[in-house]
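Request: Not sure, any thoughts?
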Amino acid sequence: MDQFYINHWAVLVCAIANLALGALWYSPLLFYKAWKTENGLSDEELKNINPLKVYGLTFLFALIMSYNLAFFLGDDKTDMAWGATAGFLTGFGFAGLIFAVVALFERRSWRYILINGGYITVYFTLIGLILGAWRS
């Protein structure tokens, strides 16, 4: 590794992308109804969350995940293609599959696994792409 570089603005954008992608992924436009059914949740239960706690912790965790991937992609040879590839391999090969293992033991459905595992894979691919593309 000749140079090591982390673009802190890109990391911040990646953490924000977690919230944006999640808002789309789990919206009525995509998987909201199926996700809600698979979790046995009602609209009333979902209205009774503490948004500061949920979104605040989500952003904090997304920031940590984004920095973690940024450290792995910190080599000066990282580009958009390698960033997206590394993000996909991280999302699918590590995070998505361990999520699936846990869900299998929890006796969750394949639909549940695919909705959430798909989100994990797409999110890591997206942040890898952002980190790889935004090098300066």
